[in-house]
Every structure is written in structure tokens, then in C-alpha cells.
């Protein structure tokens, strides 16, 4: 399954801001968010006619690891030859002289191939996709490559910090046993919870391609719904519609309704791809459908029932300070009787002033900037 589909890239602008006033956790949290220090260097779909080849220049640092994935569709055998060339052999190839691939990198891909190349020294390497053996037909080839760094990068550190900030804010709203949130390449557009959360970087790239980065908090809150219910011992933790409800509820709680609407648009748009058997978000259990999208929109339009039901589920897991905030919030769905009964049970003074609030704002995740490898490709 290719890590991304045929789409045109476009920039998305996120305008949703966090509106809820938050309390600052006064304790120091252990690091629970991990971001793979990687950079996507190539994402392309190319049609290679019979006898054609293509090369992609990749400037690679010694000590890093190149991961590349090739997906082939078409022709009699669904296969192409792939490999890496160094600078001098790339010149030989261009001059139609005998050339040699970097030892150990020559592979025949039948439908899908995934490869790892530890970069021995800093140099420009050329990824060769060769359809020279095809006699009759062209092939559609998806090429995806990323570099893994041995140390955190500026991007991975910034992304880690911003997500850790969200995680620490979650600790200020809810009481829950720690779980990890991991961002990494998975080979597909996916996200899952077990209850540690994995968000595949391909999924974030796909949202960016579609100009729907705003759907990202919904995806994250959906996974958080699975994880929270899991660590709280709620039997519904694996239920997809319950996780969706949690995500809608969290978006309402945090004034991120426009993000939930964006997610709904995304679900609705992907219908064609589902029918065509192309990559799915959350392949394992998640039925993407216009029905799911409609549920989200209905709940956003009429939040009262949803928010009342979820307050009953959440009330024993809410941090007391956050409960005071909610009790003072101007929303008509706030169940004051429920919150005050719980505060009384805890012996907490409902009118006590809150601690100094912190202001967490949603910022769309950036993907590591792709270099221009695709633009420097050559048909030699
Ligand atoms: Zn799910």
C-alpha cells in the first residue's frame, strides 16, 4: 500500500485557536512524547514507459539512514529495478558507459519494496528506478524516501516540545495514567492507540497535501479517546464511534469545532479512495464514511446531549481546578449540579479562585521541509 495517494499539494491555513483558559500543571512531567528525527526527502509518483529509467538526486549525510519504499503498479509483472548510484557511476550512466550500483542496493521490486541504506559518507547519491526490462507496458511507480537522523533535529525537538505542552495540558484537565505519544514513519497513512499512541508522519503529510491540517487535532483526540478510555478501564475503549464522540466532545470543550468540521470534510472526501481500495486512514478498524462525517456534524450542531453524556463519563477523571473552570464557563451544556456534587464529594471549595491559567493554543503540526530532490530528477 503506497504511503500516499494521488493528490495535489496545497497549503492549508489553520485559524482555530484554543479558547479555554487552562491551569498550569505545577509538577514536572516525564517526557511522554517522542518524535522520530526524520526528514521526508522524496514523495513522487512517476509513470515509466517501457525501457525508461529515472534517477533522483539525494544529498545524504554520513551517519544517517536512508529509508526508501517503492510501489509498482502496471505491466505484466509489476516489477522494476531499483538501486543507488554514487556520483561517478551516475556520470557513467549518463554517458551510456558501464556503471555499477552501490553494492547491496540492487533490487528487483515486485509490487512493493522497502529498503534501508546506512549512509557511509556524506555525498550525493542517485536513486535509480529502471523499467528497462519491460517489453510492453509502462508502470506507475510510487517512490517515497526519508532520512533518519541519529540525533534529534531542530524540527523534531520543536514538534516534541509543542506536543509535550499539549500532553502536559491534558494532565491539567484530566487525571490519567501516563501513556506515550509517538510520531514516526509507518509506511502508510495511519494512526493507532494501544493505549500508547502512534501517529504516522505520512498521515500528517497527507492532511497537509489536502490542505486539511486542521483535521489533525480531531485525529489526535480520536486516538486520545481510545487511550483515555483504555487507561480508565472503560470497556468501550476500542469502539470507533465512541472515540469519534470523544474527539467531537474534546473539540467542543477546547473551542476547536472548526477542526472537527474539517475532519468531517476529510472523511466525506475520502469516500472515492475507500471504494478504489487506495490507502486508508486507520486501516485496521476505522470505517471512513460519509455516515461518520454526518455524525460529527450533527453532534457539533447539537452539542447538548453529547456534552451532558460525556460529563457524566468524565466527571470522576476531571482535575478539580479544571472542574472549577468548567463550572464558571459560559456554556449552556455545563452540568453545574453534576460538577458541584463531585466537588462536594472531593471536599473541594467550588468558589475558590483558580490557579494562574496557562494559554495553550492549537498550532498545526509542521512536517519536516522536503528538499527539492524530486525537482532535480533526471531521465538519464
Ligand atoms: Zn480509532
Largest sheet: 4 strands, mixed
Mean pLDDT: 81
Strand tally is: 14
Strand content: 15-25%
Order the strands across the largest sheet as they lie in space: 2-11-13-12
Judged by helices, strands and strand pairing, the structural class is alpha+beta
Query: Which sequence of SSEs, written as H and E, runs from N to C?
Result: EEEEEEHEEEEHEEEHHHHHHHHHE
Bound molecules: zinc ion
- Summed up, the helix count is 11
Total individual domains: 2
Helix fraction by DSSP (H/I, runs of at least 4): 25-40%
Shape: elongated
Evaluate the radius of gyration: 24 Å
Span between termini? 28 Å
Low-confidence stretches: 6-29, 271-285, 370-380
Keyphrases for this structure?
380 residues; Jelly Rolls; four-stranded mixed beta sheet; four-stranded antiparallel beta sheet; binds zinc ion
Description:
The chain has 380 residues and is of the alpha+beta class. The chain has two domains: 223 residues, no CATH class; 109 residues, GOLD domain (Jelly Rolls, Sandwich), CATH 2.60.120. It is built from eleven helices and 14 strands. Strands 2-11-13-12 form a four-stranded mixed β-sheet. A four-stranded antiparallel β-sheet has the order 3-10-5-8, with no helix packed on it. Helix 5 packs parallel to helix 8. The C terminus is likely disordered. The chain binds zinc ion.
Amino acid at each position: 500500500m503506497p504511503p500516499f495517494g494521488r493528490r495535489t499539494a496545497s497549503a492549508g491555513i489553520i485559524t482555530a485557536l484554543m479558547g479555554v483558559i487552562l491551569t498550569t500543571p505545577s509538577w514536572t512531567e516525564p517526557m511522554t512524547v517522542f518524535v522520530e528525527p526524520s526528514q521526508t526527502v522524496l514523495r513522487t509518483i512517476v509513470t515509466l514507459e517501457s525501457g525508461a529509467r529515472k534517477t533522483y538526486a539525494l544529498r545524504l549525510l554520513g551517519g544517517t539512514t536512508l529509508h526508501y519504499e517503492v510501489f509498482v503498479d502496471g505491466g505484466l509483472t509489476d516489477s522494476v529495478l531499483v538501486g543507488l548510484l554514487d556520483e561517478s557511476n551516475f556520470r557513467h550512466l549518463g554517458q551510456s558507459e558501464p556503471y555499477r550500483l552501490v553494492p547491496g542496493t540492487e533490487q528487483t521490486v515486485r509490487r512493493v519494496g522497502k529498503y534501508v541504506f546506512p549512509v557511509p559518507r556524506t555525498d550525493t547519491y542517485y536513486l535509480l528506478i529502471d523499467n528497462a526490462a519491460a517489453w510492453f507496458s509502462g508502470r506507475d511507480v510510487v517512490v517515497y524516501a526519508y532520512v533518519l537522523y541519529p540525533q534529534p533535529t531542530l524540527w523534531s525537538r520543536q514538534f516534541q516540545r509543542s506536543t509535550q505542552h499539549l500532553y502536559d495540558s491534558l494532565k491539567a484537565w484530566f487525571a490519567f495514567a501516563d501513556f506515550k505519544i509517538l510520531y514516526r514513519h509507518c509506511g502508510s497513512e495511519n494512526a493507532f492507540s494501544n493505549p500508547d499512541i502512534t501517529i504516522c508522519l505520512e498521515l500528517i503529510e497527507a492532511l497537509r497535501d489536502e490542505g486539511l491540517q486542521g483535521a489533525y487535532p480531531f485525529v489526535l483526540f480520536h486516538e486520545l479517546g481510545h487511550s483515555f478510555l483504555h487507561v480508565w478501564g472503560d470497556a468501550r475503549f476500542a469502539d470507533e464511534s465512541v472515540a469519534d464522540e470523544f474527539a467531537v466532545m474534546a473539540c467542543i470543550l477546547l473551542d476547536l469545532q472548526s477542526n472537527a468540521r474539517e475532519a468531517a470534510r476529510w472523511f466525506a472526501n475520502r469516500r472515492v479512495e475507500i471504494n478504489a481500495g487506495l490507502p486508508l486512514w486507520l486501516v485496521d478498524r476505522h470505517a471512513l464514511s460519509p455516515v461518520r462525517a454526518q455524525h460529527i456534524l450533527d453532534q457539533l450542531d447539537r452539542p447538548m446531549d453529547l456534552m451532558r453524556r460525556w460529563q457524566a463519563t468524565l466527571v470522576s477523571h476531571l482535575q478539580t481546578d479544571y472542574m472549577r473552570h468548567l463550572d464558571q464557563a459560559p456554556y449552556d451544556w455545563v452540568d453545574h449540579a453534576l460538577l458541584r456534587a463531585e466537588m462536594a464529594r472531593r471536599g473541594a471549595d467550588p468558589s475558590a479562585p483558580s490557579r494562574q491559567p496557562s494559554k495553550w493554543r492549537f498550532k498545526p503540526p509542521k512536517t519536516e521541509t522536503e528538499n527539492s530532490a524530486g525537482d532535480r530528477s533526471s531521465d538519464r
